[in-house]
Amino acid sequence: MILTLTANPAIDRNVTVDRLVFDDRAYILDTRKSPGGRGINASCVIHAYGGETLAIAICGGKAGRQFEEYLACCGFPCEFVRIRSEIRMNLTISDRHGLTIKLNEIGPELAPAEVARLEKAVRAKLKGAAWLMLCGSLPPGVPADFYARLIRAAEEAGVQTLLDADGDPLEAALEARPSVVTPNQQEAERLLNRALLTRAHFQEAAERIRGMGARNVVLSLGARGAVGAFEDGTVWEAIPPRIDALCPIGAGDALAAAYVWALTNETTKPEALQWGVAAGTASARLPGVSFATLEQTREIFDRVTVQRAA
How many Å apart are CA 66 and CA 237, to the nearest integer? Predict the structure, then answer.
C-alpha cells in the first residue's frame, strides 16, 4: 500500500480560456473544481494504475466539506484530520496553446494540537504500508522539520519514503535520508542557490542533492524529462518524445506517483524513471489539471528514451 500525505490540500478551480495575453480580455471556455494537493494527485494516479493507496489530508471549513465530497467519488480511501480553519482555494488558468498560470493560497494556520493529530494519523498508518509519499507545502504553524520526523518514523517501521517538497521542509528532510526526493528544476535551483541551464548542470545537481542526504534523487525537468541519481552511484536520463503540451500543471505529481507505483511492481530504478517521465508527459497532453490513464501512459512509455549518463 502506498500512503500519501497532503498537509496543505485545496479546492482547485481549473479554468480554460481561449488565450492568455496581457492587456486584453480572454473568454472562459470551461471551468471546473476538483480536490487538489500533490499527495491527492499522487493517489489519483496510483489508483488509476490499479495500485493500492490511502490518502491522508487535513480538512476544515466549507471548502473542506466540498473537498470531502469530491474525494468520495475518486474511488480510493481517504483519512481526514479535522482542523478549525478553512482549507485553501487555488486557481489554475490555462489556454488552448498550453500557457498556464497557477495561483495558490498559502493555506490555513494549524494549531500545535492539530499538527500533533496529523503526525499521529500518519504514524498510525505506517504499519502495512510499503511507501509513504510526503507531498507539497506545509501550511503555517507546521514546523519545517515535520517531514523529517515522519521520514525517521517511516524508516523505523521499514517503510520507504518519497519527498516532494520545497524550501525549508525539503532542506530539513534531506538530513533524515528519505528514500527518494523529486524536486523540479526551480526547487533544485532554490535548494542549491544556483541556476541550472545545461545537461551537465542537471546531472551535477542531482548528484549534489543526493550528497545532501537523499538516497536517490529524481530531478524533474518538464519537457526535458528527468535525471535520476541513484544510490548505486549511477546517473540516468529519461528523455520524453516531443508533444503538444496543453497543461503541464500536475505533471510532476504524476511523475512521482508513477515512479513509486513502478517500484512497487518490482521494476528497476531506471525503468521506474521511464514510467515517471511517461506519466508526466502523457498528463501534460491533457487539458486542465488532468492525469493520464495507464493506457495513455503506456503509449508514451515506449517512446521515452532512457540512457545512462554516468
Answer: 40
